[in-house]
Amino acid sequence: MHARVAYKFTSLGERFISNIKVGRSPQKLEANGKDIMDILALGIGNGSTLVIEAVGEDEKEAVDSLVELVNSLGDDGD
Amino acid sequence: MVSVLIIAHGNLARELLDTVMFITGGEGVMEAIALDHNVEVEQARNMVKEEIRNIDDGGGVLIMTDLYGGAPSNICMSLQDDMKFEILAGINLPALVKAVSLQKTHDLETMAKKLKDYAKENVYLASDFLKESDEKGEGKGK
After folding, report:
1. Does B11 touch chain A (CB under 8 A)?
2. Which residues are registered as beta bridge partners of B32?
3. How do beta strands B61-65 and B30-35 pair?
4. pLDDT at B140
5. Backbone dihedral region of B139: left (phi > 0), alpha (psi from -120 to 50 degrees) or beta?
6. Nearby residues of B15 by Cβ (< 8 Å), 6 or more positions away
7. A43 — contact with chain B (CB < 8 Å)?
8. Neighbouring C-alpha atoms within 13 Å toward the C-beta of B7
9. Integer Cα distance of A43 and B60 in angstroms
10. Nearest by CB to B23, which of A7, A14, A41?
11. What is the mean pLDDT of residues B51-79?
């Protein structure tokens, strides 16, 4: 994943109150969805499957928005 | 909001700023001063003072320099205390990108402390990752 995309992801994540965890399947949900270096360290590449979990009062909106962002990315991750 | 001023040797500050702006899509209140080795100390000090006054909106300025003990840091440390600033020396790109997020939500002192830790925490030895991946049988980063 490009750093620019990771920034977009975490910047979007920061707009939500909920705690957001991200993992690259089948790994555990170990990355903070609001931290760019955590997301970059997942080593996400083309074809990776991400698992996104949000817990909090705006959890559904958070997950929906992040999934929409990820699905909008092109093959080059940008 | 806390403003950020990058000061470094040669053209490093401008290059770092350009890279941060590329990653964040232009978000962030951040400026850079490239300290050429030919610039006189007093001239450099005046440049820094002027820039601090220009970018400070009242939230203070976090000066991020490349090297503790180097001219950029020393010049900043000799500035008068009548300006609201903090100096974080020995910065890296993770800390600069994180600064864009933190400057919206944190005060100057808290932000400086968090970024000091963040800069240190985000230096990785690739072989540690590979070893961890081998142990898990995952192939991290692939």
Report:
1. no
2. B6
3. unpaired
4. 47
5. left
6. none
7. yes
8. 28
9. 36
10. A7
11. 94
Could you give the CA distance from residue A22 to residue B3 in angstroms, rounded to a whole number?
30
Which among A4, A27, A41 has CB closest to B25?
Answer: A4
Number of other residues whose CB lies within 10 A of the CB of residue A5? 21
CB contact under 8 A, A43 and B25: no
Residue B25 region by backbone torsions, left for phi larger than 0, else alpha for psi between -120 and 50, else beta = left
Tens-place pLDDT, residues A15-71:
999 999 999 988 788 899 999 999 999 988 888 899 999 999 999 999 999 999 999
pTM of the model: 0.88
Query: Could you tell me how many helices (H) and strands (E) chain B has, helices first?
Result: 6, 4
Say which residue the tokens 């992040």 belong to. Answer: A66
Q: Which two tokens stand for residue A54?
A: 């949000």
Question: Are the CB atoms for B21 and B48 separated by under 8 Å?
Answer: no
B19, burial (CB in 10 Å: exposed 0-12, middle 13-18, buried 19+): middle
Q: Are residues A11 and B122, on separate chains, in Cβ contact within 8 Å?
A: no
Q: What is d(CA A73, CA A55) in angstroms, rounded to the nearest whole number?
A: 24
SS3 of residue A28 by DSSP = coil
Bridge partners for B73 per DSSP: none
